[in-house]
Specification:
Strand order of the largest sheet: 6-7-8-3-9-10
Oligomer: single chain
Shape: globular
Order of helices and strands: EEEHEEHEHHHHEHEHEEHH
Number of strands: 10
Strand content: 15-25%
Largest sheet: 6 strands, mixed
Helix content: 25-40%
Structural class: alpha/beta
Number of helices: 10
């Protein structure tokens, strides 16, 4: 997990994206950018369109109109694995760890997408293949140490407490060596102590020059880690700016009050 070369210009550009499901408009003319090295949070009340936006950005869903560009490359028509190969990697709302595999093997599987060995090379256990396997295993240990799961390496992914399963999913995403990481409600199910540790982890991730786009309902976390916040409501952007500005925005406050959230 080495630091990344800087990129000139917005890392991610969402340009006039709309998504319709029949007569339902999930996203309407959404445009915003994420700059190199930023941590931008995409927030909004339930049903605002946040996960739909993530799915469009990462190739799981094609927009009805508009375009997404990552490091000046159009993502139009690319499948999710092709988007990930460009360095844009995501986590999911629900954990997607391999429950029957160890924590270590979960991370190792994430790293193997960078391997160069052929099937025959692996079967024949060629010296080059053995060397690459050692390198990947060393990197897996580095990732686990980085996120604080090294002592859990031999445990089954499904046996971890839910909060640590969320952390394992982040570890697997980091194993894919992202230049940009999209985190979908990463602290869901974490207790206060785990959330505090995750905030520290975000700082370490950013020190590796990884750009971050975050969807999260924990407003304390969002307001404390974000450089900028983009607010969606009913599929439309209603506000954008630094945390202090968003906290005072009347339209944002009304949107959250409508769902019973008393403060940001």
């Amino acid at each position: 997990m080495s630091a990344r070369d800087p990129f000139s210009g917005p890392t991610l550009s969402i340009e006039h994206v709309s998504v319709r499901f029949g007569g339902l408009v999930a996203i309407a003319d959404m445009s915003f950018t994420v700059n190199e090295g930023e941590l931008v949070s995409l927030i909004g009340p339930n049903g605002a369109g946040k996960t739909t936006a993530f799915n469009v950005i990462t190739g799981f869903l094609r927009p009805t109109q508009g375009e997404v560009r990552y490091r000046s490359v159009s993502l139009s028509g690319l499948r999710s694995h092709e988007v990930a190969n460009l360095g844009l990697v995501r986590t999911f709302q629900k954990t997607s760890v391999f429950a029957a595999n160890t924590v270590f093997d979960n991370v190792l599987m994430g790293l193997h997408r960078h391997g160069t060995s052929s099937v025959w090379g692996t079967l024949l256990a060629l010296p080059r293949v053995r060397s690459e396997e050692r390198r990947l295993r060393e990197e897996a240990w580095e990732v686990l140490d980085f996120v604080g799961l090294d002592k859990r390496a031999g445990e089954l992914g499904g046996a971890l407490p839910y909060g640590e399963q969320r952390l394992l999913e982040v570890a697997v995403a980091l194993a894919a060596r992202p230049t940009m990481l999209l985190l979908d409600e990463p602290v869901s199910g974490m207790n206060a102590s785990e959330t505090a540790s995750f905030i520290e982890l975000l700082g370490r991730i950013r020190s590796r020059e990884v750009t971050v786009l975050l969807v999260e309902h924990d407003m304390h976390l969002v307001m404390n880690v974000s450089d900028r916040i983009v607010v969606l409501n009913y599929g439309k952007i209603i506000a954008e700016g630094p945390p202090a500005t968003i906290q005072r925005d009347p339209e944002v406050v009304r949107a959250y009050l409508g769902q019973g959230v008393r403060s940001l």
